[in-house]
Amino acid sequence: MSSHETTPDLIAALRELGSATVYEAQGAYGALDSGIKPIHPSMCVAGPAVTVDTRPGDNLMLHYAMLKVKPGDVLVVDAKGFLEAGPWGDVFTELALQKGLAGLVIHGAVRDARTIIEQGFPVFARGLCIKGTGKNQPGRLNVPVTIGDVQIQPGDIVIGDIDGVVVVPQHDIERVVRVSRAREEKEQAFRAKIREGATTVELLGLEATLRGFDLT
């Protein structure tokens, strides 16, 4: 890795490498559960997390969080997996675009999906729901939140694409970029060898393992 790379460069590299490569390269951890999906398959996101711990069915803390976000941030919202309300919609998306927010990851639902997709704002959610929310309940901003079995700290790097969402600890970003690039280079070499006639059994050294089973 070149010594002149900055954090924005590293974040861009992780986005380009993709969530699956990053997840495997960093030791097969940090992936949010498969229920968190982009609302359109073309959506990609990468950036530092601004975390929100909010009550189910209430979006007051999202209004507060949008006062604090900076360009390039990814808003990560723990709405407790509640799917019978959509605390984020087209109006928040318009504000997010004005603020330069990189995207939203929400452990819950959103609404106005068609408009969000047309606006081109990356949203990763557990579901869609047309129902509205209250604006009454307190919550917390920039505290550790847990989605599935992954704890996300404020400032951790969030990478999302069609394969899913993975979180890279902020302090580990340089190492993860390095090992992710190495994994990508290895897989490129595998693909080249397959085009030349190699098999995955040969490339992965699976002959001995297969000989241990009666597969006939």
Automatic annotation (TrEMBL):
Coiled coil ranges: none
Binding site for Mg(2+): D112
Record has NAD as a keyword: no
Residues holding substrate: R111
Cofactor(s) named in the record: Mg(2+); a divalent metal cation
InterPro entries xrefs: RraA/RraA-like (IPR005493), RraA/RraA-like_sf (IPR036704)
Molecular function per GO: metal ion binding
Assigned keywords, A-Z: Magnesium, Metal-binding
PANTHER family: 4-HYDROXY-4-METHYL-2-OXOGLUTARATE ALDOLASE 3-RELATED
Protein name: Putative 4-hydroxy-4-methyl-2-oxoglutarate aldolase
Protein's organism: Paraburkholderia acidisoli
